[in-house]
Amino acid sequence: MNNSDPILASWSSVFLILNIIYLTTAIIVAIYIILDNRNPAKTISWVVVLFVLPILGLIIYFIVGKNYRKEKIFTRKGHKDFERIHTLSENQIIDLRDKSPIENEKVKPKLPIINLLLRNSKALLTKRNRVEILNNGSETFGSIISELQKARKHIHLEFYIIDDDKIGNEIREILIAKAKEGVKVRMIFDDVGSWKLSMKFIRSLKAAGVELYPFMPVRIPFLANRINYRNHRKIIVVDGRVGFVGGINIADRYLHGNKEIPFWRDTHLRIVGEAVNSLQVVFLVDWHFVSGRIISGDSYFPKPAIRNNQLVQITASGPDSDWSSIMQAYFSAISTAQEYIYIAVPYFIPNESILTALKTVALSGVDVKILIPGVADSVLAFNGTRSYVEELLEAGIRVFYYQKGFIHSKLIMVDDVFASVGSANMDIRSFDNNFEVNAIIYDEEFCGKLKDFFMEDLAVSMEIDLDMHRSRSFGRKSLESFSRIFSPLL
Questions:
Q1: Looking at domain 325-486, does it have CATH number 2.60.120.810?
Q2: 220-234 burial string, b = 16+ CB within 10 Å, else e?
Q3: Cα(295)–Cα(286) distance, rounded to whole angstroms?
Q4: In this structure, which topology does domain 80-84+130-309 adopt according to CATH?
Q5: Which of 268, 369, 410, 457 is catalytic?
Q6: What is the pLDDT of residues 26-46, one digit of tens each?
Q7: Are 380 and 386 in contact (CB under 8 A)?
Q8: Annotated catalytic residue within 79, 408, 427, 432
Q9: Longest dimension (CA), the chain
């Protein structure tokens, strides 16, 4: 017994030293996080993780926690087309100040949002556009396939998820056929979102002459310090004349649902007109990032032969931009609302600015309705979203749970003249970490149609009242609270 005491004492000393080293490191990292002056919710969450999950917390932080927007490891500056957009946006700011081209009196109150997006993301205000709403996978893929088959010069695709399934392979076959015809086909897929994409799928495209790159490849997932910064954008540009943007990925579940969720409700856009040039710029800058090659020239930016007048701004945000442009647009639209705000979103985990703005306008008498999922595709996101419901209801905001399937649409409508449809959720991940792209439309006809579809979705949803929500079990409340703490991180 006595012979083993020195061994135990030695191990105790080692254990004590390791604890001191860890505690010292955790304190230093916690101080670094605090001094980084990031979102308070994220700061608190990371400090909790560091001390609740010894060692693992540090590993998680160094993989997904560092603030790459601040460290500027991504940039759009230096690309020829982006610099051209920069010059055009500066000119538009002057034009809007000296003589506003906006004729619609109802749109003029939204001029501050237009100026904001010109400054924070160089989002050009385009006038000659025709924007079509595509509901769900059937309409969206039908329109996409039709346009891909018409391609004569180039096809540019950029998606978070491309699955090796029926619709994925149908589009793959079209791209292969077009590449063999001499059409330049370029494709970007997110390496994490499309982890399940087979090498056979990729090799068949390359063999046909399709150029494709993964966005920020992650070869050793648990040691990759950029795994948390993903390309969530959904963009297609065909011949520079037609573009697609919205919330739908290339996967069968958007057509037929899946085993867990039989129906996926989503919203996508088909755009013809000047706004396609802005989508093209977003793609080409991302192409430069993944391939190292600059693709430029007037042939990628044909002048549209269209007379429709729908005002559109394409705004992109992410670690490659100086500002959280989409979040700022949401905040400005919410805080200046006069009549109503309608929101449909699968993941509602807002920062304090957005949450306060929504509660403030609701208390001021603005009609605020928020449509969120009634079923979960992610336990953490689902319960994190539910954790905000009580304070929304207390502020007079009406909350609805979609019942027909899973609501994956990402849209916001304000006062019949402002609408945003795109890839960005109303959560901290979309605001700070992901590469996102949204179309902002200032048009009464478009907003009217989008509003009608929103009301149809409400008709198959369940409205939640405060008493009903408060009656949930203690276990459910606890799960929601813990999800709220950790959801900003993952």
A1: no
A2: eeeebebbbbbbbbb
A3: 11
A4: Endonuclease; Chain A (3.30.870)
A5: 410
A6: 676 666 555 554 556 566 666
A7: no
A8: 408
A9: 94
